[in-house]
Design a protein that fits this description.
single chain, mainly alpha, Amino acid/polyamine transporter I, two-stranded antiparallel ribbon, globular
């Protein structure tokens, strides 16, 4: 048995190193760069327009349809965003950024920004295609996702099946067990709550939401996601401005170390541009999931009629997840003084010694530097909320994958299994299972990136036609000339 586990671990390690390795990360960037160039840098050239048509719409009295919908078989544009963010704004925004800093140096944050900037347009393309090729199932609900535009756009059902299999498997691990484990550990370490108690509580709460389908999931996430995101952002800003004098140095270290081609201290090990690139780009991709084809499944359930409009919500999703939340986490750590670049740089490629913190512990230290012990408790609660929201979001992704593979009748069975697996995730040590599901999560990108690349011409055409329609109706939108 030990030999079998060892063999599985080694094989998974090879596959994981490939899918999250340099070659695939370059492909992620290349696809995003292609859409960026072919849309004439849409995320910048039309910044005022897409921010107006998405985020700012939420505050207008005449845009109620963006926030709510009376359609029993769809969710609103805001709800689709919140459900997508529920899956992407997760534990990784707190711990993953800290890990990238600890193992890749401040320069990793620059490369995280770059991957997010390009990933905006990859996510835009996914969601535009998702709306174009979505259809209504037997219940009248909208169904869309990478598997749908792979089948209908390319005619490659076999590739769509592969994507769906990876999606379902990833939903049990990254989207369920690892999140449950974070919640159970957090409650146990902070409040001594037995893990089995946490498991039952999470199963009950998640079950009540998941059984209700996308409408109930969306109704919860539209309240939970803004609350947890805004609360975390306010806390991060307090830490950053309490150390305002360190802000210039923090940005200086990010840009200065992004292009460090030699190790520190001559022959001493240290952060280099390649280390920073790998850690930063992978952190960005893993956080916002642009290129994985996951969030398009929930965006496709929106009440929107124009594919390009939902594509712009995809741009905002990446912007909010990585360029806002992940950046604030990085700045809290860099400005608070809990991170010593020189000391961390000595352990590149090696295990960190006990006195050097990483992950959630490093972010907690940053908050504790201003709030004291309350800061650690705040981060523990944030981790639990972020993890719970991820469970909700990924349950829907897995549901869509199961429906594609086995039909609607299989969905209730999937939901039951998904809820039961939460108990396992909360109570067991499942590092290998989680590592394998992390690999499945990454492998969702292969069929998806093939599809969006081959269908890129359609995305560009839809974008140009939409801009032409806007021009024909009105030359300027809120002062922006298109």
């Amino acid at each position: 048995m030990d030999n079998f586990i060892s063999a599985v671990t080694n094989i998974n390690g090879i596959l994981n190193n490939f899918i999250w390795g340099p070659v695939m990360l370059v492909i992620f960037l290349a696809v995003g760069l292609m859409f960026t160039l072919r849309t004439k840098v849409f995320q910048i050239s039309h910044f005022r327009y897409w921010i107006d048509i998405t985020f700012l719409q939420l505050f207008r009295k005449d845009a109620a349809h963006v926030r709510k919908t009376t359609d029993k078989h769809a969710i609103s544009q805001f709800q689709s965003l919140c459900t997508a963010l529920a899956a992407t704004i997760g534990v990784g925004n707190i711990s993953g950024v800290a890990v990238a800093l600890a193992l890749g140096g401040p320069g990793a944050i620059f490369w995280m920004w770059l991957s997010a900037f390009l990933g905006m347009m990859t996510n835009y393309a996914e969601n535009t295609l998702g709306i174009k090729y979505r259809y209504k199932n037997e219940k009248g609900d909208w169904v869309g996702g990478a598997m749908i535009y792979i089948e209908k756009g390319l005619g490659w059902k076999w590739l769509a099946v592969i994507f769906s299999i990876f999606c379902v498997l990833a939903s049990f691990g990254i989207g369920n067990m690892s999140q449950g484990n974070e919640i159970a550990n957090g409650l146990y370490n902070s409040f001594s709550v037995p893990k089995w108690v946490t498991a039952l509580l999470v199963m009950l709460l998640a079950g009540l939401v998941i059984v209700g389908g996308i409408k109930r999931i969306a109704s919860v996430t539209e309240k939970l996601v803004p609350f947890m995101a805004v609360t975390y952002i306010i806390g991060a800003f307090i830490v950053i401005f309490a150390n305002a004098s360190a802000i210039p140095e923090a940005f200086g270290s990010i840009f200065g170390n992004a292009f460090r081609f030699s190790s520190i201290g001559g022959g001493m090990a240290g952060f280099t541009v390649m280390v920073a690139m790998r850690r930063g780009i992978s952190r960005g991709v893993f956080s916002n999931e642009a290129g994985l084809g996951s969030s398009v499944m929930v965006h496709s359930a929106s009440n929107v009629k124009e594919p390009v409009v939902q594509g712009m919500w995809g741009i905002f999703e990446v912007f909010a997840d990585t360029l806002v939340v992940c950046t604030l986490t990085a700045l809290t750590i860099l400005t608070s003084g809990v991170y010593d670049y020189t000391e961390y740089a000595q352990y590149v490629g090696a295990d960190l010694p006990g006195h050097l913190k990483s992950g959630v512990a490093l972010t907690s230290s940053a908050f504790e530097s201003v709030f004291g012990p309350v800061g650690g408790g705040f981060i523990s609660i944030a981790v639990m909320l972020f993890a719970f929201s991820t469970i909700l979001g990924w349950s829907y992704y897995g549901e869509r994958g199961v429906e594609y593979l086995f039909g609607l009748k299989a969905v209730p069975v999937y939901k039951l299994i998904f809820i039961l697996i939460i108990f396992l995730g909360c109570n067991a040590s499942l590092s290998l299972v989680v590592d394998i599901s992390d690999t499945f999560n990454g492998f969702m990108a292969l069929p998806n990136l093939i599809a969006v690349t081959l269908l890129s011409g359609q995305v560009i055409t839809m974008t140009r036609e939409y801009i032409a329609k806007v021009k024909a109706g009105k030359e300027t939108i809120n002062g922006e000339e298109l």
